[in-house]
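hey team, just a heads up i'm posting the complex here instead of the shared drive bc the drive is being weird again. everything in one block, sequence lines first with there labels, then the predicted structure for the whole assembly after. its two chains so it's a bit long, scroll down
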Amino acid sequence: MDFSDFFRSEADQLLRFCWMLTLDADEAADLAQDVMARAYERWDELERADQNPAGWVRTAAVNLSRSRWRRVKRFRSLLPKLVISAQTAVVVNDPDLANALFGLALRQRQVIALRYWADLPLADCATEMGISLGSVKQHLARAHRNLAATIDPAVLQELVL
Amino acid sequence: MKDLGKRLNELASNATTGTSLRDPSHIAPPERRSQRGLSMAMALVGVVAVAFMLFLWQGSDSGTTSVAAGQVQDEAAEFLDDETCSGDSALALLRAGIPTHDYEPAGSFDALANQSAAVVVGQVASIARTEVNGRSYIEIMVTAVVDVPFATGVDTPRPDIQIIAYEAEWADSSSPGPLASPVAVERLDFFGFLSPWSGVRDGWAPGPEGLYVSCNGGGVPVLANAAGPNDPTNPGEWWAVKATQQAEGQAMADAAAAAEAARLEAERAAAGGAAPPTEVFLHTVVVGDRLGSIAEQYNVTVDVIIRANPQMDPNVIIAGEQLVIPGAQTNLDLLESVGGTGLDASAPEPRVTPVPLDDGPGDPPLEHEVVAGDSISAIAQRYMVTISQIVDANGLTDSGNALQVGQILLIPPPFPEVAIPATPATPEDLQGLQQAMIERARERWNSLAVDSYVLRYAEFRPEGPAVLVAVTVEDGVIAFLDWDKPDLVGSVYTVDALFDLALSADTVREFESDPQTGYPTVLSVDPDSTVAGDEFVIRSIEVIPSPPTS
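-- predicted structure starts here --
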């Protein structure tokens, strides 16, 4: 598979994953583009049969998102404090879930995205996040608890079963 | 995929509608694959309008320069196929889709330079247009960038400046425009007044009228006069004049400094005394401070402050940061005039704390003579020390209700237990520094008897991603919550608990004090750290000081 094929099949998925990490469409696009550029740089290596490029870009996104998140926050701190511009408003179709995600820590959003959106087993989540299985469970448990603050626990239970 | 996964997918898909990525294999020339910043993605966070104008700059080089069409495809090839630098072609490229919104001209090259973090020259390597989420940008890859060497005469390379970018607005974004493909450019110089721009990774943005390009050689027209009527017509001339002035000024300053030193030495010899004891002072940066205003306040030069604070980034001073100010006598006078012998409620709060240069155990503390109306807490606040420090230093047995008018109190140096490394070198040092800052803030808040504060949150709501929500905390208890989380009402948040939360955060972004009262007003912690059982995220804290006791 050449890189363009990979890009065509994975770009939208990566963009959505990055949005779950950043909760910001512009930042997600920037992050995803950065990740794709890095994947392209090392495509010779990633296209080998034993590699999982889709997993690689998710891991790269997870790793990059932390530092990028901080840089973005630093920039945002230059804006007048606590003045939220209406121009940044985004209309979403599922405000309850969006609101719930916004209340999660970055690691918790990562684990939720990997476990439920990418549908990965916990062990694979641990591999992609570069942390232990126990830590994954811990983050997931906290994420569930925080989601339950916004989403009815009974509904949440059904959603994750 | 579980139902939650499906909902997540629909939400993320909806939220990123209209957003698309560009295939890097289509936009990156192969030989530049490894360069950072090659990805053309740009995201604006927040609302930033970079207003600018482009002018041709007639450079000082001679010889022929051309804008050549390397890596050129389609329209761009047609556009530049003459392979000569007519000036017009380069300018047309750079001006393609120039913003139409109003901007405020800098007024002069000097003003432009003052507004800019870097004044540099270099060469343009390529010009590209990108479009992300309906916004268009011009992205200029530059090479061989050096700082304009006013003072030193020596070129200082700026390898960190590789991308200059600015927002552009095509009238019709559906048409390909002249930069539909990246255009490689040869032998085109630029002169830039630039500042870092977070909207583009590693990008730099030109200030208003802050980017000039030159095809060199004779006959290239300068399209407009420069920023001000009294300025030279191009930045190259301005630069030459400036460098000359700088050299002359430096010579005069050196002579004046030598004369002043000789005069002081003579005075000292005449008085028969030794040189006055050397002291430095710590200035706590408050909101609104600029290096210039601080220098003016202490009657020193900005350079002196920069040299005395090697750990400081002169471009960004942070509220709460402490700066060493050399220049003892001026500051001692200032301190005594506002806090030495009488408390005047209308007097400005001292923003200066004397610290002996050698902070050893033998150094004498300051003295404060108690006047009517003084209280321990007021004195502690005035000198930016804690109540307990004053109580300890003076052997007081209580909180100071028994102060006598005329009593001399010893004022110890502030927070001597906190050792802040001058230049944090490792993550551990930085962590220690942050912890020291928080500990210091905790001391200060306690000494100021702060017991109420407001927490602010951002919340995701259908009408927008972030809605300001305020929580009022009184006497350490959440009393009012403009948010449907009733279970949080009644949660106890003491000042100590608050700082424990701050300590658990990865990064403390800001700590600010009110410039008038000295009260801490804002503590912002990294928003991706969660607190209090991950139930919410602290955005900032607005302190409500306790009402003054009369």
